[in-house]
Design goal:
Layout lengths: L5 H16 L16 H14 L25
Helix pairs in contact: 1-2
Length: 76
């Protein structure tokens, strides 16, 4: 069973083309400059597909880091 719909793949392909032409912008409203990274272009394409309601898996949630106390004792 496919994880992504074909139309979602087309959205990613379009985003990649816009990156190549230098038309793909980052940030809200495209005010963060042009996208240089290939991975970022793919992420933008997938996010656009999600907004259109296409079949794309949910974003991976960030795992919280827990602080571990070291077992070392302070000596005077």
């Amino acid at each position: 069973m496919a994880r992504y719909s074909r139309s979602a793949g087309k959205d990613v392909e379009r985003a990649m083309d816009r990156r190549k032409k230098g038309k793909l912008k980052r940030g809200k409203g495209g005010k963060g400059g042009t996208v240089k990274s290939r991975k970022q272009a793919i992420a933008i394409g997938l996010s656009e597909a999600r907004k259109k309601g296409k079949k794309v898996p949910k974003k991976a949630s960030k795992k919280k880091k827990s602080k571990k106390k070291s077992g070392k004792k302070k000596t005077r």
